[in-house]
Amino acid sequence: EPIWLTKPETASRLRGRIERVLEFAKVRGHRSGDNPARWKDGLRSQLPVKSKVRAVKHHSALPYTQVGALMEELRGRTAISARALEFTILTAARTGEVIGARWEEIDFASRTWNVPAERMKAKRVHRVPLTDRALEILGQLPRVDEFVFPGVRAGQPISNMTMAKLLKHLRPGITVHGFRSSFRDWVHEQTAHPREVAEAALGHVVGDKVEAAYRRGDALEKRRLLMQDWQTYILEVSANLLLPRRHP
After folding, report:
1. Distance (Å, rounded) from C-alpha 222 to C-alpha 127?
2. Do 83 and 27 lie in a common domain?
3. Active-site residue, selected from the candidate residues 121, 153, 195, 215
4. Pick from 103, 149, 179, 187: CA 20 to 30 A from residue 84's CA?
5. 45 and 101 co-located in one domain
6. What is the pTM assigned to this prediction?
7. Is 58 a catalytic residue?
8. Domain residues for 82?
9. pLDDT tens, residue by residue, 193-225
10. Does residue 85 share a domain with residue 40?
């Protein structure tokens, strides 16, 4: 069912091939009974018609090799939307997590941002290691109320469209959420950091419930090295320098 809902054209072709293979096996005497892959009088009653399924659209992401140039442009702007977007990219966080960030969640002593469970998609506390530049951004922001990135209305954070509007102006067609994909691609293609550490940095639950129960830690220090490498990479790229890979 999942592939039928996300890649209907591919799923339809695959179903047809499976149906033909099973029919051939039945003719040769290798199986008996109804064909479970048959569309008519079979799967048609269980799955939506292909033409009614909308393919999933992934968030448009900026290639990681181009993120550094964007970061340099953001540093040249003074608007709070630029600081919020830069912070979002540095932490690989979701938009909602950033705009809802409160000062009480920032632990400067441990260089950590503690996102409460109610604002996390996985519904559990997420500790985000803060890099040098992320801390510098926080140090530049005025503390006018509880929110790290305050909006125009007192007691309210910036809206979820604030960063999107700025990004639309700077990089049309690219989404804020897409920077999480940029980060993941960079980890996979340019570093030797383990996949599990990268997924943990994105706030994803790695493995099944049993595996998660045995792995109580959140690999904070390993993620700290990863995020510092990410910062170094995008700052080095913006300065047209090359960064040697780090092998943890």
Report:
1. 12
2. no
3. 121
4. 187
5. no
6. 0.72
7. no
8. 64-241
9. 999 999 999 998 766 553 454 355 678 999 999
10. no
- Residue 246 falls inside a structural domain: no
Residue 247 forms part of a structural domain: no
Residues 96 and 132 in one domain: yes
Percentage of the chain lying above the pLDDT 70 cut: 82
Beta bridge partners of 128: 113
CA end-to-end distance (rounded Å), the chain: 39
Q: Which of 26, 124, 168, 177 is catalytic?
A: 177
Q: Look at the chain and report how many structural domains it folds into.
A: 2
- Confidence band (pLDDT; 50, 70, 90) for 229? very high
| 143 catalytic per annotation | no
pLDDT at position 78 over 80: yes
Cβ atoms within 10 Å, residue 227: 21
The reply to whether 204 belongs to the active site is yes
Asked whether residue 58 is domain-assigned, the answer is no
Cβ(217)–Cβ(99) under 8 Å?
no
Is 233 a catalytic site residue? Answer: no
Residue listed under structure tokens 């045995």: 214
Task: Please indicate whether residue 121 is annotated as part of the active site.
Answer: yes
pLDDT tens digits, 141-178: 999 899 999 998 888 999 989 999 999 999 999 999 99
**Do 166 and 214 reside in the same domain of the chain?**
yes
Residue 248 resides in a domain: no
Torsion (CA) 222, 226, 228, 230 in degrees, nearest 10: -170
